[in-house]
Inverse folding.
């Protein structure tokens, strides 16, 4: 009997110690945190958790989280910053793009504010040159949209991004189909007729897969045909014909680029600037 | 911050009128500032600490002038210690340059000093105390020199800095005593157990074999990093679509900062107060004391949607912490934090570059201008995430794969493989992130020097010794070298090679130099050049001034250790601010001659075991003791006075004094390995000997005593077993041996268990200072 009493006392004492170890100076806030599935719940709650300092409980349906924290040791801002750095947009902070990009697929929630901002942000940078010149040069150079779409595929391969390469290749297919052949000069017209099918074939295959290895095989022949077409006319903007002797297991491969600096689409980050410009087409 | 200027102008109005009447030369506007330097208490980290504020603020107030103004700056020293102010990057008469004991005597406590000079340039500059370590605790501020017509774009002066809760004098002392407390705080101990866990055991052994301790990109642990005195702040006045010019000065005492921006690329438009052709980058590193003007834009938003603010993120080079400034209003778009460094990869790289004699070997890569950042091997965002133990083979950093591919191809295309070597450390080639380097800076104007002027060429090798925290040029500290004489009218060309393991931001007072970076006549003008290990940079400037100008590493603790030199114009008139040049020189040299004290004692169950040391650049005075609790265990004190020789300071001859007392049982006499007898009962004797640091950081000591007894000893201190666990081993020819293991709790305390052949096994509390 006595020992049971002692045990109970000990348990009581222990539990009181345990209780003491909980979060002190409690503040509780309800905040909106973006997310979409059970995995997100885990991600958000882990990011917000710090032993004896902060924790959160997130509801998938309402997207609301109850954040409890020690207001002497941290703040709601600090907790939400950690949540955003883990990839989840919220009331106070938006996640960096790459943190969002690293989320599991099921967790890639719709980014409300962010999406617009990104679209806006990218617009002036990416399409500045392209847009301005399309307006002016579309008439002058009917192949301009094809070349731009080709560059987009190339840039995706430079980043070794199979998904983007596939999406961009889909646009390339459309651009190839949209070319008004009658606007081409006669020499270029002839060559275009010859290679159009192959261009379409390679672009189609790049669009079909997300495997960069396979995409790069097709990109090599796509590039050779593009070169033939572009060289036969006068492009509205300078095109750099570049060569990497090591691509395709030492056989070498070529590509066209809008910039003179080498950004190798056949290796990505592994050997980004292997290669050299072999011809400048103006 | 604003009152100084406007009130000052009003106050000075009668003076202007007076001057107009007296001297028409001074027809420009006089701008007066009054700076009150005062002790204050700050709380950046949760603990109140002493700091120095000027006009009640940290950073010091932003001083704004327009080209053509005359600056009148009254410094009211309300401290109980000396001070000074240096106008960093400004062209001014030598006596107003603000280097105590070189261009002026220190400003004594409770006196006022006037700096008065014409503003003959424009650009982003800054100012700071040049006295001791005052710059670390608040004495830094922006100095904005406007053109007569500045571009119409909102501008924000920004000073970056760092804060440590430790007294900077203590920081300096700890650095000189090879304390690894900062590494423990940063989590960069790079111990054997961490090396084994991450699969870098061989790398660690090779590193110690080459007599190197843990590697790091910076020396000091800081509690907070600050942008204009705040860790986080917001400038809500900026609207979507707006462009903002940030005029950034790095006022940190020893921290390089990475600058990144969540709202897209940044356009660099000026450096060290000189315009450059705009260049767009994703990020840049700002060296200690450099300035950059950077234009960022707040991205547009869709009409009707809520505004977003964008983070300007400032991360210390060691990536332990960061500071943020949010531009615009609304929900905050964060920038990606920089991932932790892969230290063991850096260690591996260092091993490859370090020769056994302590020199660096660039393997023929001709590095310069920060173009090849060897630290790239440590950046996960460029060379891939850290390789774990298991997946190491498959997930090697990308550039290594590239290398192997190249090697296979070697016989076929030797030329291409050279290309890969070149790329191995070029971050701009390895990823799509564009990082600024000095080769990308181009002046919009012709900066060439006068032709036909005689050329004086100076070569400097930056040298250093991390273990002993000695930093120098050509293995000479300031007090060990003569002034470097230059002549007015000549062109001075400097070739600087960094043979040390740290990067050094070298700053020349009072002049801008051209950095020969391949831009021809448009070479950029700078007054600080960051020289990374193994880099060689060539600079040139026209000698147009007179007087004494300091040239030094701007890492505060390196400068105070003596890394610098004085450029002195021949036949300069005497400086009226230096009434007694000999006294001034002695006081200037005192900085790097100072001795640093450390002491440690283990209060153990079997006795006291400890040491105390006083060391400076070359000299070491050290005493070790082992004091038992009874006569049988004995008492022993050994004192050595030695001088470190050579650049790496591995060799130290010394003379010593040895006293010991121990009560032995009858007939018990010890003999050493050489058969020499030694009672050890009572001994008080002189000795001479030599210490030499062997590979694996083992100290070999040979000592001969005046009674003919010879002793040879091997000792290895502070083997980093794990993050906080250190092991000491010692054995000598007196058949004495010792093994100890110490767990470090705090900066000043640890627990040690040791076994000693004299005193047996003991456990104790170790206190160190």
């Amino acid at each position: 009997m006595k020992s049971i009493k002692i045990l109970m006392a000990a348990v009581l004492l222990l539990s009181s110690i345990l209780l003491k170890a909980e979060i002190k100076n409690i503040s509780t806030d309800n905040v909106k945190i973006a997310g979409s599935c059970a995995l997100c719940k885990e991600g958000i709650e882990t990011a917000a958790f710090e032993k004896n300092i902060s924790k959160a409980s997130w509801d998938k349906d309402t997207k609301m989280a109850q954040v409890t924290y020690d207001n002497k040791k941290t703040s709601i801002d600090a907790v939400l910053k950690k949540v955003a750095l883990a990839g989840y947009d919220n009331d106070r902070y938006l996640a960096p793009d790459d943190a969002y990009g690293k989320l599991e697929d099921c967790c890639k929630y719709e980014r409300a504010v962010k999406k617009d901002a990104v679209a806006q942000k990218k617009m002036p940078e990416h399409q500045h040159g392209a847009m301005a010149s399309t307006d002016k040069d579309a008439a002058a150079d009917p192949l301009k949209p094809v070349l731009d779409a080709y560059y987009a595929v190339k840039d995706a391969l430079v980043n070794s991004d199979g998904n983007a390469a596939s999406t961009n290749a889909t646009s390339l297919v459309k651009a190839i189909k949209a070319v008004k052949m009658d606007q081409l000069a006669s020499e270029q017209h002839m060559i275009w007729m010859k290679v159009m099918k192959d261009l379409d074939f390679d672009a189609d295959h790049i669009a079909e897969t997300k495997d960069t290895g396979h995409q790069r095989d097709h990109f090599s022949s796509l590039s050779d045909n593009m070169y033939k077409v572009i060289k036969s006319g006068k492009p509205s903007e300078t095109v750099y014909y570049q060569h990497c002797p090591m691509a395709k297991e030492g056989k070498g491969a070529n590509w066209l680029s809008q910039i003179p600096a080498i950004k190798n689409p056949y290796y990505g980050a592994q050997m980004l600037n292997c290669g050299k410009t072999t011809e400048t087409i103006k | 911050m604003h009152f100084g200027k406007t009130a000052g102008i009003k106050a000075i109005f009668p003076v202007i009128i007076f001057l107009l009447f007296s001297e028409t030369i001074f027809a420009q506007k006089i701008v007066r500032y009054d700076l009150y330097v005062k002790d204050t208490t700050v709380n950046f980290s949760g603990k109140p600490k002493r700091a120095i504020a000027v006009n009640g603020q940290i950073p010091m107030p932003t001083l704004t002038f327009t080209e053509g103004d005359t600056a009148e700056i009254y410094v009211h020293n309300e401290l109980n210690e000396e001070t000074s102010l240096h106008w960093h990057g400004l062209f001014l008469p030598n006596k107003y340059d603000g280097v105590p004991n070189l261009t002026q005597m220190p400003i004594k406590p409770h006196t006022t000093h006037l700096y008065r000079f014409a503003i003959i340039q424009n650009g982003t500059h800054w100012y700071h105390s040049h006295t001791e370590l005052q710059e670390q605790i608040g004495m830094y501020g922006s100095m904005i020199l406007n053109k007569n017509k500045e571009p119409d774009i909102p501008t924000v002066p920004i000073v970056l800095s760092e804060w440590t809760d430790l007294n900077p004098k203590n920081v300096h002392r700890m650095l000189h005593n090879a304390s690894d407390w900062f590494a423990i705080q940063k989590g960069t101990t790079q111990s054997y157990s961490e090396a084994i866990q991450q699969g870098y055991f061989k790398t660690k052994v090779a590193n110690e074999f080459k007599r190197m301790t843990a590697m790091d990109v910076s020396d000091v642990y800081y509690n907070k990093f600050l942008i204009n005195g705040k860790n986080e702040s917001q400038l809500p006045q900026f609207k979507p679509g707006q462009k903002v010019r940030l005029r950034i000065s790095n006022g940190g005492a020893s921290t390089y900062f990475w600058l990144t921006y969540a709202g897209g690329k940044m356009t660099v438009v000026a450096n060290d107060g000189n315009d450059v052709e705009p260049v767009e980058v994703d990020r840049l590193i700002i060296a200690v004391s450099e300035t950059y003007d950077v234009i960022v834009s707040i991205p547009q938003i869709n009409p009707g949607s809520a505004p977003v603010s964008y983070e300007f993120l400032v991360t210390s080079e060691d990536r332990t912490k960061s500071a943020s400034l949010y531009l615009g209003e609304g929900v905050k778009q964060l920038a990606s934090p920089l991932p932790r460094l892969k230290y063991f990869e850096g260690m591996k790289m260092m091993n490859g570059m370090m020769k056994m004699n302590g020199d660096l070997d660039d393997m023929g890569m001709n590095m310069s201008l920060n173009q090849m950042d060897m630290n790239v091997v440590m950046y996960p965002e460029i060379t891939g995430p850290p390789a774990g133990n298991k997946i190491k083979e498959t997930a090697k950093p990308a550039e290594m794969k590239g290398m192997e591919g190249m090697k296979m191809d070697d016989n076929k295309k030797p030329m291409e493989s050279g290309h890969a070597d070149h790329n191995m450390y070029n971050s701009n080639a390895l990823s799509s992130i564009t990082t600024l380097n000095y080769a990308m800076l181009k002046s919009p104007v012709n900066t060439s020097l006068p032709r036909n002027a005689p050329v004086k060429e100076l070569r400097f090798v930056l040298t250093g010794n991390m273990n002993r925290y000695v930093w120098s040029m050509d293995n000479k500290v300031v007090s060990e070298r003569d002034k470097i004489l230059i002549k007015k009218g000549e062109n001075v060309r400097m070739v600087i090679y960094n043979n040390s393991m740290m990067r050094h931001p070298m700053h020349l007072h009072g002049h801008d130099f051209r950095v020969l970076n391949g831009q021809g006549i448009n070479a950029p003008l700078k007054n600080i050049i960051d020289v990374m290990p193994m880099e060689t940079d060539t600079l040139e400037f026209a000698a147009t001034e007179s007087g004494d100008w300091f040239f030094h590493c701007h890492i505060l603790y390196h400068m105070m250790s003596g890394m610098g030199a004085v450029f002195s114009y021949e036949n300069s008139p005497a400086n009226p601010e230096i009434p007694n040049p000999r006294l001034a020189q002695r006081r200037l040299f005192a900085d790097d001659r100072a001795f640093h004290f450390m002491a440690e004692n283990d209060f153990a169950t079997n006795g006291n075991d400890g040491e105390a040391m006083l060391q400076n650049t070359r000299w070491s005075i050290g005493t070790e003791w082992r004091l038992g609790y009874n006569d049988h265990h004995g008492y022993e004190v050994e004192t050595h006075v030695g001088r470190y020789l050579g650049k790496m300071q591995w060799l130290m001859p010394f003379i010593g004094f040895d006293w010991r007392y121990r009560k032995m049982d009858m007939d018990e006499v010890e003999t050493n390995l050489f058969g020499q007898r030694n009672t050890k009962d009572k001994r008080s004797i002189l000795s001479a000997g030599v210490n030499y640091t062997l590979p694996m950081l083992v100290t070999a000591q040979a000592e001969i005593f005046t009674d003919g007894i010879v002793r040879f000893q091997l000792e290895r201190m502070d083997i980093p077993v794990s993050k906080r666990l250190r092991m000491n081993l010692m054995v000598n020819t007196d058949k004495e041996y010792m093994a100890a293991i110490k767990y470090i709790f705090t900066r000043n305390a640890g627990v040690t268990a040791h076994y000693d052949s004299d005193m047996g096994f003991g456990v104790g509390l170790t206190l160190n200072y």
Notes: The mean pLDDT of chain B is 87. Residues 179-212+342-434 of chain B form one domain. Residues 311 and 326 of chain B are 4 Å apart (CA to CA). Chain B has four domains: 3-150, 179-212+342-434, 444-557+564-570, 596-768.
